[in-house]
UniProtKB/TrEMBL annotation:
Keyword check for NAD: no
Disordered as annotated region, ranges: 1-75, 1048-1081
Domain (DUSP): residue spans on this chain: 82-183
First-level EC class: hydrolase
UniProt KW Secreted keyword: no
Protein name in UniProt: ubiquitinyl hydrolase 1
Family statement drawn from the similarity comment of this UniProt entry: Belongs to the peptidase C19 family.
Organism: Malassezia sympodialis (strain ATCC 42132) (Atopic eczema-associated yeast)
Amino acid sequence: MTASPTRDPSSHPTDDERPRASTYLLDRFKRARTTGSDTDASSDAGSSTLRPPSREGPDEMAPARDAPRSDESVDSLMGESLRLDDARTPAETLAREVEAWRATPPRLGDTWYVVPAAWYRAWTEHPARPPPPMDLAPLCAPGGQLRAGLLEGTDYELLPKPAFDALAMRYTVRGPTLARHVVPGVAPGQSRIELYPPRVELVLCGAPPRAACTALPTADLSAGETLRALKARIRALGVCTAGDDDLRLLRLPPHLRAAALASGGRVSVPVLCASDPPVELVHGSDAATLASLQLDAPTLLVGVDVRVDGAWQYPTARDVPAHRTRSTTQASGAAHAPRGLRGLANLGNTCFMNSALQCLSNTPELREYFLQGAQWDELNAENPLGMGGALAAAYSRLVQALWGSGSGAVVPREFKTALARFAPQFMGYAQQDTQELLAFLLDGLHEDLNRIQKKPYLESPDWVGGSDADMVRFARLQWDMYKARNDSVIVDLFQGQYRSTLVCPECAKVSIKFDPFMYLTLPVPNTRKWRGRVYVVPSGAQPIVQVDVQLPATATIAQLRERVGALVHIDAAHLLVGEVWSHHVYRWLASYEPVRDLGSDDTIYLWEAQAPVALPRARKPSASRFSFFGRAERTVEDIERAYDAPEVPEHVTLPVFSCKADAPGRFGSYRRTLGEPMGMPFLVTVPRDKMHDAAYVYEAVQAQYVRFGTLPTAEAMHARAAAARDAVRAAEGGADAAEDGADEAPRPTGLFALRVAAPSADEAMHRGDDANDGTTEALEARIARLAGGDAWPVLYPGSALYALWEGAVADAVLPAVPASHVWGAVTEQQDPEFVQGTAQLAAGRRRAPSLSLDDCLNEFTKAEQLSEDDLWYCPSCKEFRQATKKFDLWKVPDMLVVHLKRFSAGRVSRDKLDHMIDFPLEGLDLRSRVVGRQMLSALPDEVPASQTRVNDAVSVAHDPHDDAVEADLPVYDLYAVDNHFGGLGGGHYTAFAKNPLDGRWYNYDDSSVRPVSDPATVKSSAAYLLFYRRRTARALGGKSREIIDRLQAAQHTPMPPATHSDPLSAAPTPAAYSSSSDDEV
């Protein structure tokens, strides 16, 4: 790499050297973003021009005069090279770079800022629009803390310090700034942004009560601080004076706060012992961080226990072996209640975890597997894809606690810690998706308990066609190959197989694949509608058509094109779609994008091209985009040298943007701009053999201006233009105004002059918002330059044309664009479905739909045509095709988990479908839907061989248990439901589960467990995950069942959980359960 120019590190680059320094520093910045904490020490060269903001009063933020460097590997490089604090930097450029900053991984010691998601989303969508002040107050609770229950992407976004500083320097920020530090994660090498720093309320345990108080002593710390620091803070607050060795901490359930306030910040020992959920003793050295001790919740109630004369005030089971907690006392009062009715304490927004765990815990065969200790015989601690057995061990201890002899809520802290070590997304206390947790847990248990010690490498053969018998054997081969690498209790119970079929629309080539599934995700039919207004610009002389259209809320831009094209009788393949704002295309819309991302105030245009048209793929430069994108001196030739020359189709369709060449400019910001934008964008289509004909291109553009203008013909426009020029000359005293030839574009001899623009970095097609003399080239000059056989064509997909008008001429022959963003004559048309929907809304007849699980299954198995942006490569045609794709259930497992896909997310919108979906409590019959069993039952009986041959050199074993699963009736009974109440901005998870010991339904709501009086209440619109068990006389579980039976036979009686040792336990497990230690699992 070429070294940067030598200069004083504290000085700013000069105008002459900035391009080279910018390229060099940005190249190093790119490396710094992708490396670890040991970055290049030379990256601190130069000083950042981005300075941290300072306060000017309680509610406003303004730039500071000076500040020290921070986050040097990112701040100094980006600040120096792009100088985004420069007001001349286009807002679009700033938005792209802030997004790049936001994608950088957080590193220890960095500072990130919380910003409102709505403000940030609106700004990134329309960066050129002046945004309102960034108001942080709605994100804050009283006291300036971040409000609880907020969701990233919905309520807030996180920006690193340099990105936030850049925004704060340009825009007004109101309210208290929310700076957050990056602290160590649970596992070594992990880091996380401390969104909610711990706020610890302190209570003195066992001391005599005092007069009631209104607040408790509070310590605000970082999760990266140590237990020793917290003890020092306790003494500083005057809670006690004991030294570190005579002071220990207890986690107190939140409900004890009221008792502590009533007693003046103290709580008695009897109250502590009677607590449910129980009190937990904090174990760990004084050097341990609060995060490692799980003392990092946003709000904590911590008891301070002081040792006096060698005795602690609060006696735990270790201190007084005969001590009986409330949990054990309750057990005697509920001697006839079945086991398994223990709740799970909410550790802070962990209801999503608790509900899934309760559903799994009540899975009869899985419960028996872990209670009998079969997991210790199958633990695979060497599996590189597993968790070293730690997740299975933690789950095992949790199940044993839930089904043990104790009572009261179990605290799943150890399990959560083990989970967060291997899945950082579940670290902290933010609300998560219960289905995502269940998927990770099942997959993690599978890998920890995988019976395959060394997975063989196998290449899956392709389906080459054949009879039904051949397909059955092919599916069996695919399953046996999967089992050769994956074999566990999770596979035995939860995994099935589906078939996917692709059919080429041209040659009818059929491609069939068989894949395993662990849960069945069913789409919920979305009966909601999207209603909007769009504008169609025909390619001929017809006026613009305003179309009101109604589509399903799940529709895409491709379906919008089809519907609108049918309404106005235009081939959808000729339509290009974009959002228009401020005389340019704010964004081009791809076929796969959902229509729900279109806002009610967005102006959507569909332009007809004279030939089939599609958005070109965004071209990636061969050099770093930073090396030329941020340069003021870039030219068309510079940009084109960074790319490979494109292929040119038979017809090139490109947008045309209009501006007044002699008016104040708003396109660029570095050198002289093209002028003031005006009018609306439109398309022209140029044949490949005509792109070197400047007159042809000019006539094609001029024809479009005639349709938008106030005069009927081009000749009339030329005459009016001549009169306007004469009027200007007369006003100037008969002589042209002086012109600077180096800085001013030549006066057009026709109506306008044309310039060709190259697309900006990473853009599919030019949008009309970033153009100047350097990034455009006069059409005639470009034709002359490329006439010598240059690889680049004159025009190509993604480029654009700019028409430069004299201000007086444009004002004389073209109308102004009104607030409706429509240029020229307009006709109106309404979609019949839009009219019908309007009538239904007026009559109030839009009722919630009646849906059933069968409707969701129909949606899952419905054949669909792939979109234009998701084409399939046909091996027969050797072309990408819009194939038809269909899913079918081939083999279903004994435990069928159904995921109702209620949540959906687009680019700017999210949605939850709260429709009531009727599902059977008993007798879910899938016989008509499991095509593998149908096909198998129609064939003569055939006993599979013990070995299935993959190829001439490889064979895999066949498990006869799989044949029994495949042949069994697919009829199921419900045994658990995971519910989600609320919307996207929060909500709460609970579970219904049928206890396998007494067959009754119970409602599990965190630490609360209540019987369900009427099983019909299990059905609700909150149902999210459904757990079904096959109805059969066959013993379920396959190999797992054999292991359980062998263990039971060896013992003659069921083996108590405590008799099985846990070889992976990092700390000894106490022999007796108590509320302060053993219930924390």
